[in-house]
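Q: Could you fold this chain for me?
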Amino acid sequence: MNTSIVIPVYNESKQLDACLASIAGQSVAPFEVIVVDNNSTDDSALVAERYPFVRLLREYRQGVVHARNRGFNSARGDIIGRIDADSILPPDWVEHVSRFFVEHPAISAVSGSAHYYDFAFTRLIDSVDYYLRQRLAMKLGQENFLWGANMAIRRQAWRAIRRGLCQHQAMHEDLDLAIHLQARGHIVDYEPQIVAGVSCRRIDMRFQDYVRYCLVSPRTYAMHRLRSRRHMYPIIMLCWAVYLPARVIYRGYDPVTGSFSVNRAFFQTTPRVDPTTNIV
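A: Sure. Below is the predicted structure, expressed as structure tokens.
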């Protein structure tokens, strides 16, 4: 099956090159790669233009939900893969995603698991994440999640539900997509064998912003009046509990050299902006 890959981008020049390089190394080439520039003020568009297989689109309405919609509506593949600009795909990602939908014709959308490539104790954090995602998928059941950094959806399923999707501020658009799909009778699955490398940078924000960011997940379910939001609170509490040591480790760790620097950990500035606030 032909697989398009859509990447919403806002000021991601530092991450995008590695992401696109991983796509260039796929064992099965994607049908197309669409980078949607969402008003970047850095060199993100120039990075995308260096790769001849990339189709660069512009979305002037600010917010990842608008950039995603622009990319998904333009995709021509049977399957639409969605990743983030910091996602680094293993060489068999496209092959694995395509085979999954061939072997599971009843499933409309799927999310995979994470490999955190820029954090110390990678095996530990990957294992914890693997366990938590599997447990959450089991608890949510027919209200399962989608995860924008590593997911795919059948194009026909997208076209069937796209007009009814929410565009509220402070809502996770990937969770909202999953909710609407399942409300229309589509099956959303979690397949841990579909792995994507992702950054731990999501923890690199001020604690008050991190608290708000975490609460967007159950709030998205609450806005749809779904009681399954309660299954997310134990995971959120764990994330809050490990926030401080995890952020220090992330900031101080150099994945290239495998070394830790106190200077990097405590004296770097420019914390990450909460992406759920970047929408109008």
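A (continued): The CA atoms of residues 87 and 127 lie 18 Å apart.
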